[in-house]
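Dear colleagues,

As part of the handover before I leave the project, I'm documenting each prediction I ran so the next person doesn't have to rerun anything. This entry is a single chain, and its sequence is reproduced below.
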Amino acid sequence: MRVISGEYKGRKLQAGNNLSIRPTTDRVKEYIFNILQDFQNQKNVADIFSGSGSLGIEALSRGAIHCNFVEKSRTSIKVLQKNIMHIGLNSNAYKLVNTAAEQYVLTDHSDVQLYFLDPPFIFPQLQTLIDNLAESKYFHSENLIVLEHETTNPVEFDSMFYNILKQKKMGRSLISFIEKRI
Protein backbone atom coordinates (compact mmCIF):
# COMPACT_ATOMS: atom_id res chain seq x y z
CA MET A 1 0.00 0.00 0.00
CA ARG A 2 1.36 3.38 -0.98
CA VAL A 3 0.48 7.03 -1.60
CA ILE A 4 -0.46 7.18 -5.29
CA SER A 5 0.00 10.83 -6.20
CA GLY A 6 0.86 14.29 -4.98
CA GLU A 7 3.41 15.56 -2.49
CA TYR A 8 3.93 12.16 -0.81
CA LYS A 9 3.72 10.06 -3.98
CA GLY A 10 5.34 6.63 -3.71
CA ARG A 11 5.64 6.60 0.08
CA LYS A 12 4.72 3.24 1.56
CA LEU A 13 2.06 2.93 4.24
CA GLN A 14 1.71 0.18 6.81
CA ALA A 15 -1.55 -1.66 7.27
CA GLY A 16 -0.54 -3.42 10.48
CA ASN A 17 -1.28 -6.97 11.51
CA ASN A 18 -4.75 -6.15 12.78
CA LEU A 19 -7.25 -8.05 10.65
CA SER A 20 -9.90 -5.39 11.34
CA ILE A 21 -7.90 -2.96 9.17
CA ARG A 22 -8.96 -3.49 5.58
CA PRO A 23 -6.98 -0.86 3.70
CA THR A 24 -8.39 0.68 0.56
CA THR A 25 -6.56 -0.81 -2.40
CA ASP A 26 -4.52 1.37 -4.72
CA ARG A 27 -6.98 0.59 -7.54
CA VAL A 28 -9.95 1.85 -5.49
CA LYS A 29 -8.03 4.93 -4.30
CA GLU A 30 -7.08 5.74 -7.88
CA TYR A 31 -10.72 5.46 -8.96
CA ILE A 32 -11.93 7.67 -6.07
CA PHE A 33 -9.39 10.41 -6.70
CA ASN A 34 -9.90 10.31 -10.48
CA ILE A 35 -13.58 11.05 -9.84
CA LEU A 36 -12.78 13.75 -7.27
CA GLN A 37 -10.09 15.27 -9.50
CA ASP A 38 -9.28 18.49 -7.60
CA PHE A 39 -12.32 18.54 -5.28
CA GLN A 40 -10.14 17.93 -2.21
CA ASN A 41 -7.84 20.90 -2.96
CA GLN A 42 -7.89 23.48 -0.17
CA LYS A 43 -10.56 21.50 1.69
CA ASN A 44 -10.81 20.00 5.15
CA VAL A 45 -11.47 16.28 5.03
CA ALA A 46 -12.50 13.64 7.53
CA ASP A 47 -11.21 10.08 7.16
CA ILE A 48 -13.84 8.22 9.19
CA PHE A 49 -12.96 4.61 10.08
CA SER A 50 -9.46 5.77 9.11
CA GLY A 51 -7.59 2.56 10.01
CA SER A 52 -4.16 3.07 8.44
CA GLY A 53 -5.12 6.59 7.26
CA SER A 54 -4.67 5.73 3.60
CA LEU A 55 -7.53 7.89 2.24
CA GLY A 56 -6.83 10.90 4.44
CA ILE A 57 -3.10 10.82 3.73
CA GLU A 58 -3.81 10.53 -0.01
CA ALA A 59 -6.13 13.57 0.19
CA LEU A 60 -3.47 15.58 2.06
CA SER A 61 -0.88 14.53 -0.50
CA ARG A 62 -3.19 15.83 -3.26
CA GLY A 63 -3.90 19.25 -1.77
CA ALA A 64 -6.34 18.93 1.14
CA ILE A 65 -5.35 21.35 3.89
CA HIS A 66 -6.45 19.39 6.97
CA CYS A 67 -7.67 15.89 7.85
CA ASN A 68 -9.55 14.63 10.88
CA PHE A 69 -8.57 10.98 11.22
CA VAL A 70 -11.51 9.38 13.05
CA GLU A 71 -10.78 5.95 14.51
CA LYS A 72 -11.94 4.20 17.67
CA SER A 73 -9.47 1.27 17.68
CA ARG A 74 -6.31 1.93 19.70
CA THR A 75 -4.46 -0.67 17.62
CA SER A 76 -5.43 1.09 14.39
CA ILE A 77 -4.44 4.46 15.84
CA LYS A 78 -0.93 3.12 16.53
CA VAL A 79 -0.62 2.06 12.86
CA LEU A 80 -2.01 5.43 11.77
CA GLN A 81 0.49 7.29 13.97
CA LYS A 82 3.37 5.30 12.44
CA ASN A 83 2.15 6.22 8.94
CA ILE A 84 1.81 9.89 9.88
CA MET A 85 5.34 9.90 11.29
CA HIS A 86 6.73 8.03 8.27
CA ILE A 87 5.11 10.50 5.85
CA GLY A 88 6.22 13.45 7.96
CA LEU A 89 2.87 15.22 8.14
CA ASN A 90 2.93 18.64 9.76
CA SER A 91 0.98 18.54 13.04
CA ASN A 92 -1.21 21.43 11.77
CA ALA A 93 -2.38 19.26 8.86
CA TYR A 94 -4.21 16.65 10.89
CA LYS A 95 -6.06 15.77 14.07
CA LEU A 96 -6.49 12.29 15.53
CA VAL A 97 -10.01 11.79 16.83
CA ASN A 98 -10.27 8.68 19.00
CA THR A 99 -14.01 8.05 18.87
CA ALA A 100 -16.60 5.91 17.13
CA ALA A 101 -17.90 7.12 13.78
CA GLU A 102 -21.44 7.14 15.17
CA GLN A 103 -20.36 9.66 17.82
CA TYR A 104 -18.27 11.80 15.48
CA VAL A 105 -21.13 12.50 13.05
CA LEU A 106 -23.22 13.80 15.96
CA THR A 107 -20.57 16.37 16.97
CA ASP A 108 -19.59 19.66 15.33
CA HIS A 109 -17.81 18.87 12.07
CA SER A 110 -18.73 22.13 10.35
CA ASP A 111 -15.15 22.67 9.16
CA VAL A 112 -15.22 19.49 7.00
CA GLN A 113 -16.20 19.54 3.31
CA LEU A 114 -15.20 16.02 2.21
CA TYR A 115 -15.90 12.83 4.16
CA PHE A 116 -14.28 9.49 3.46
CA LEU A 117 -16.10 6.56 5.07
CA ASP A 118 -14.60 3.11 4.82
CA PRO A 119 -16.39 1.09 7.51
CA PRO A 120 -15.75 -2.58 8.24
CA PHE A 121 -17.56 -4.72 5.69
CA ILE A 122 -19.78 -6.09 8.44
CA PHE A 123 -21.22 -2.85 9.82
CA PRO A 124 -24.97 -3.13 10.43
CA GLN A 125 -25.38 0.54 11.46
CA LEU A 126 -24.23 1.86 8.05
CA GLN A 127 -27.60 3.22 6.92
CA THR A 128 -28.17 4.98 10.25
CA LEU A 129 -24.68 6.46 10.13
CA ILE A 130 -25.14 7.81 6.59
CA ASP A 131 -28.59 9.21 7.47
CA ASN A 132 -27.25 10.90 10.61
CA LEU A 133 -24.37 12.46 8.69
CA ALA A 134 -26.49 13.56 5.72
CA GLU A 135 -29.22 15.11 7.87
CA SER A 136 -26.71 16.81 10.19
CA LYS A 137 -26.81 20.61 10.32
CA TYR A 138 -23.04 20.49 9.71
CA PHE A 139 -23.32 18.66 6.38
CA HIS A 140 -24.02 21.17 3.60
CA SER A 141 -25.02 20.94 -0.05
CA GLU A 142 -21.48 21.68 -1.26
CA ASN A 143 -20.06 18.82 0.84
CA LEU A 144 -19.44 15.29 -0.37
CA ILE A 145 -19.32 11.82 1.17
CA VAL A 146 -17.20 9.12 -0.46
CA LEU A 147 -18.28 5.75 0.89
CA GLU A 148 -16.57 2.40 0.36
CA HIS A 149 -18.82 -0.40 1.57
CA GLU A 150 -19.62 -4.07 1.06
CA THR A 151 -21.84 -4.76 -1.95
CA THR A 152 -24.05 -6.90 0.31
CA ASN A 153 -24.53 -3.93 2.68
CA PRO A 154 -25.83 -1.18 0.36
CA VAL A 155 -27.31 2.12 1.46
CA GLU A 156 -30.72 3.37 0.34
CA PHE A 157 -30.49 4.75 -3.15
CA ASP A 158 -33.50 7.04 -2.77
CA SER A 159 -33.21 8.86 0.54
CA MET A 160 -34.92 11.97 1.83
CA PHE A 161 -31.54 13.19 3.18
CA TYR A 162 -29.11 12.58 0.32
CA ASN A 163 -28.58 11.79 -3.36
CA ILE A 164 -26.16 9.20 -4.66
CA LEU A 165 -24.31 10.94 -7.48
CA LYS A 166 -22.28 8.00 -8.69
CA GLN A 167 -21.77 4.40 -7.68
CA LYS A 168 -19.41 1.71 -8.89
CA LYS A 169 -18.85 -1.90 -7.91
CA MET A 170 -15.17 -2.85 -7.53
CA GLY A 171 -14.76 -6.45 -6.38
CA ARG A 172 -16.54 -6.79 -3.02
CA SER A 173 -16.64 -3.00 -2.63
CA LEU A 174 -19.26 -0.55 -3.71
CA ILE A 175 -17.96 3.02 -4.04
CA SER A 176 -20.69 5.63 -3.55
CA PHE A 177 -20.43 9.41 -3.96
CA ILE A 178 -23.13 11.09 -1.88
CA GLU A 179 -24.38 14.70 -1.63
CA LYS A 180 -26.97 16.33 0.60
CA ARG A 181 -30.46 16.48 -0.86
CA ILE A 182 -31.66 20.06 -1.11
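The helical segments are 26-36, 54-61, 74-87, 101-104, 126-134. The domain at 26-154+169-180 is CATH 3.40.50.150 (Rossmann fold).

All the best with the project,
I.
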